[in-house]
Design a protein that fits this description.
The chain is about 25% helix and about 30% strand. The protein has about 800 residues and is of the alpha+beta class. The strands form eight sheets. Strands 4, 5, 6, 13, 14, 15, 16, 17 and 18 form a nine-stranded mixed beta sheet that branches. Strands 8-2-1-12-20-19 form a six-stranded mixed beta sheet. Strands 30-31-32-29-23-33 form a six-stranded mixed beta sheet. β38 and β39 (about 795-800) form a beta hairpin. The longest helix is centred in the first third of the chain and has 21 residues, at about 60-80. The chain is globular. Bound molecules: flavin-adenine dinucleotide (FAD).
């Protein structure tokens, strides 16, 4: 039946899978009228209809867990609200570990779950056997039980959300394909669509791309980056097994499998280590409730392990061999938010096989975001602004997603690096570093030297939850920075020029620190949102009266550019990404001055080149701009060098460095040094929901300079007092390690989590940062408490400090 297509809407949601239905449900709940959802065929006909329906609440971070918990609660309530049975039952879940390393991982997760208020219990193999009598537990090392996890009927969840949306006034039309998104002056103005061969236009200022595996291509047509690619995902369903009673969901990640009992049958699904990308040449126009051909050879190794794990499967006949496509992303995380390229173009797609459990919460968060113009809490992990433009490349995506599917159940070791689709973005020094033992990691496509192997040492990570094979390399690099001089390649920094007549006024409005400084000065600052939360953490160097250089982490560049562009009004200022134009070589350590003086005729004394200033210098036979700043807490210079001269400058430094013991250092050392100094890391310690004063960055905020975004919130917090503080911790026992997400225990009670951690090779123990609630308390009260950090169930005594434990008076930096 043809349904009337409205000429106008407040929002057009593209795609009627669980994602689109959830966004429609939540927007209409918020009182949005004129919500229109268009589905090219029938609701749920893409990926949603065939999902296994596992609802696991425990996710990698507090906010992701919050969203998953929200989904589970919503799915329980939806039935009463809409009359559609969602099949949601909270029968619990068990995850078993078959190795000691996995045991550490699931126990660490259990500690984290407790910190997030998720009900969790470590259980013995015997207890597992009691709950799951069919399971072979002979080699099970440990297990955790989450009693409130569960399973559901995914298609009905989507149908219930759709019905709930309709009940609140949304219009949902099937059989309408969106053919293009119309734009004018950088913003969405409408969509064109097709129904039964007829073409229509809907005027709208907002679209939401919920098109699942179609989402990348749809976005590309509008110049928007949504890097995702489909992979084949397999499960089997057995014939009914006599006597099979209700069972919890079971995950055996070491065998890449999950098990779900449903109506007396077993469903066994796989996240195999090497997946099969699908749909490289596009998706058939008539795709609707389709399945892909079975591939028994591919599934056989999984099935073999499953039969050993659950011997009753040997005799149970296979009723269904299912293979369906699902979209995966380069980092295994979905996309949410407004695309930086186009105003009014929103995305909720790329769910990496957890779209059912995620969509309830994600739809709520996105609706809130669209309604308020800002996310309800930190969503950086899944923010569409983390996508890199190059990641649209299909060859890259095809290779990468063959790995990301399996990562769902792979060991989530700290520092784990992607193995596929590497080497896309390289510093001009890449080959130099490689020849000197660099072992690379990847961030935003950039290859970065994480540590340097010694002569004859294996140049590969050996992952573990204990000390990894590069621990000693890091120690030596770290101590070289503290006592001698180290050289880091930080070419991956994002570099943005803001220039023009109004550049100063524009930056004054966006940055919390004073920007009206002499040319040549470097200012450490944050860009805040209206709540005083930190949107960006950066240094701004005034190059001239009208030109500024903004330096940001490589991972946040797209987000930072988007923030700048979004806030540019009619000021005359031009924003240009110049990241690829300059390499950055950081010379750091007490002997940095001695080294600089060997390679340059310029004067590097405190008088000639004080902290917080930038100067052009001669170096070797070339030129650089030397910035006297540091992220490791030592005397040092960041040398910004035109990329064509980077190799020359590197060779010059290396040759002269022999006399002063110059050591090449990697990113792991940068991180271990910065955490001793309690320098914050964006995305971990500071996010858009962390108030700049509570993050301990008040020294970089100048409310007296006049108005800027976030000033009101700064003044309000000054009046009301802090409700939490970012504290630095050092474990008393030098053995255990902190990575992040360990639980902070204050006077015997869990009060938060470690936001970032590394090993303090100088301070002699693991160091972490984390927020401690402190309403109505003074700094002294906070420090007077007894602290422990809970790691995988064990509590370790920790010293707490609100001032950097390393060089609290910054004497070394200004040396
Ligand atoms: C075998 C398998 C098992 C899974 N098990 C689980 C599980 O246990 N738990 C879990 O949480 N997740 C699971 N998933 C993942 C989950 O199914 C997906 O993440 C989720 O369904 C994705 O929903 P979506 O709405 O993003 O995409 P889809 O369901 O694919 O919806 C996208 C819709 O957009 C429509 N569309 C596309 N282009 C247009 C256009 N131009 N105009 C109009 N409409 C358009 C499509 O027709 C489609 O209906 C599983 C997936 C698979 C394959």
């Amino acid at each position: 039946m043809t349904k009337l297509i409205p000429a106008k809407a407040r929002v057009v949601i593209i795609g009627g899978g669980v994602s689109g239905c959830s966004v429609a449900y939540h927007l209409s709940k918020l009182g949005w009228t004129d919500v229109v959802l268009l589905e090219r065929k029938q609701l749920t006909c893409g990926t949603t209809w065939h999902a296994a329906g596992l609802i696991g609440q425990m996710r990698a971070s507090q906010n992701m867990t919050r969203l998953a918990k929200y989904s589970a609660d919503l799915y329980v309530k939806l039935e009463a609200e809409t009359g559609i049975s969602t099949g949601m039952r909270q029968n619990g879940s068990i995850t078993v570990a078959l190795t000691e390393e996995r045991k550490e991982e699931i126990y660490r997760q259990a500690s984290l779950a407790r910190a997030f208020n998720v009900d969790v219990r470590e259980v013995t193999p015997d207890e597992v056997k009691a709950m799951y009598p069919h399971l072979n537990v002979s080699d099970v090392k440990a297990a955790v039980h989450l009693p409130l996890d569960g399973q559901c009927d995914p298609a009905n969840i989507a149908m219930a959300l759709a019905k709930g949306a309709r009940q609140n006034g949304a219009t949902i039309i099937e059989g309408v394909k969106v053919t293009s998104v119309l734009t004018k002056d950088g913003r969405v103005t409408g969509v064109t669509c097709e129904q039964n061969g007829e073409r229509f236009t809907i005027e709208t200022e907002n679209v939401v791309n919920c098109a699942g595996m179609w989402g990348r291509e749809l976005a590309r047509q509008s110049g928007v980056t949504v890097p995702l690619h489909a992979c084949e995902h397999f499960y089997i369903v057995t014939e009914a097994i006599p006597g099979l009673s209700r069972l919890p969901v079971l995950r055996v990640p070491d065998e890449c499998t999950y098990y779900k009992e449903d109506a007396g049958k077993m469903l066994v699904g796989a996240f195999e280590l090497k997946a099969k990308p699908w749909g490289m040449d596009g998706i058939r126009e008539d795709f609707c409730f389709d399945q892909l051909p079975e591939d028994f050879d591919h599934f056989a190794p999984i099935l073999e392990m499953a039969v050993n794990r659950m011997p009753m499967l040997e005799t149970a006949g296979i009723h269904t061999f299912f293979n369906g496509p699902e979209s995966f992303t380069p980092d295994d995380r979905y996309y949410l938010g407004e695309a930086p390229e186009l105003k009014g173009y929103w995305v909720a797609a790329g769910y990496n096989s957890i779209g059912i459990v995620s969509s309830g919460g994600a739809g709520m968060a996105l609706a809130q975001w669209m309604n308020d113009g800002e996310p309800p809490f930190d969503l950086w992990e899944v923010d569409i602004r983390r996508a890199q433009p190059f990641q649209k490349n299909r060859t890259y995506l095809k290779e990468r997603v063959s790995e990301t599917l399996g990562l769902l159940y792979a060991d989530h070791f700290p520092y784990r690096q992607m193995a596929t689709a590497r080497g896309v973005r390289r510093s001009p020094l890449h080959e130099h570093l490689k020849a000197r033992g660099a072992v690379f990691g990847e961030v935003a496509g950039w290859e970065r030297a994480n540590w340097f192997a010694k002569e004859g040492q294996e140049r590969e990570y050996r992952y573990s939850w204990k000390r990894q094979n590069w621990f000693e390399n890091q120690r030596q690099e770290h101590l070289a920075v503290r006592h001698g001089v180290g050289l880091f390649d930080m070419t991956s920094f994002g570099k943005v020029r803001v220039e023009g007549r109004d550049a100063l006024a524009f930056l004054q409005r966006l940055c919390a620190n004073e920007m009206n400084v002499e040319p040549g000065r470097i200012v450490y600052t944050q860009m805040l949102n209206a709540r005083g939360g930190i949107e960006s953490d950066l240094t701004v160097t005034r190059l001239s009266e009208t030109a500024f250089l903004l330096v940001v982490p490589g991972a946040t560049l797209q987000r930072d550019l988007a923030w700048l562009r979004k806030h540019l009004r009619d000021e005359f200022a031009v924003i240009t990404d110049v990241t690829a134009a300059e390499s950055v070589l950081c010379v750091m350590g007490p002997k940095a001055r001695e080294l600089m003086q060997k390679v340059s005729p310029n004067d590097f004394s405190n008088e000639a080149h004080p902290f917080g200033t930038a100067r052009e210098i001669e170096i070797g036979m070339g030129l650089a701009r030397a910035h006297r700043v540091t992220y490791v807490g030592e005397l040092g210079w960041e040398l910004y060098v035109s990329t064509d001269q980077a190799a020359h400058v590197f060779e010059t430094l290396e040759e002269a460095g022999g006399d002063v013991g110059l050591k090449l250092c990697g990113l792991h050392t940068l991180d271990s040094c910065r955490i001793e100094k309690a320098f914050r890391h964006f995305g971990h310690d500071i996010t858009d929901e962390d108030h700049v004063l509570e993050a301990g960055l008040g020294f970089a905020v100048k409310p007296g300079k006049g108005d800027f975004v976030g000033r009101e919130a700064v003044l309000a917090k000054q009046n009301q007092g802090l409700t939490r503080r970012l504290v630095q911790f050092r474990l008393a026992d030098p053995e255990p390690l902190l990575f992040h997400n360990e639980a902070i225990v204050r006077n015997g009670e869990i009060v938060g989590t470690i936001t970032s951690g590394n090993y303090g090779h100088h301070l002699g123990g693991a160091i972490g940062l984390g927020y401690v609630p402190c309403s109505g308390e003074s700094a002294a009260d906070v420090l007077a408490s007894r602290y422990e950090i809970e790691i995988a169930g064990s509590r370790i005594k920790a010293e707490a400090s609100l001032r950097p434990m390393y060089d609290p008076k910054a004497e070394r930096v200004r040396a």
